[in-house]
Amino acid sequence: MTTLELTQHIQLKKSFLCIGLDVDLTKIPSHLLLTEDPIFEFNKAIIDATHDLCVSYKPNTAFYEAYGIKGWQSLEKTINYINENYPEIFTIADAKRGDIGNTSSMYAKAFLEDLNFDSVTVAPYMGKDSVEPFLALENKHTILLALTSNEGAFDFQTLETNGKKLYETVLETSKKWKNAQNLMYVVGATKAEYFAEIRKIIPNSFLLVPGVGAQGGNLQEVCKYGMNQQIGLLINSSRGIIYASNQEDFAQKAREEALKLQQEMAAILAK
Question: Is 96 among the residues known to form the active site?
Answer without folding.
Answer: yes
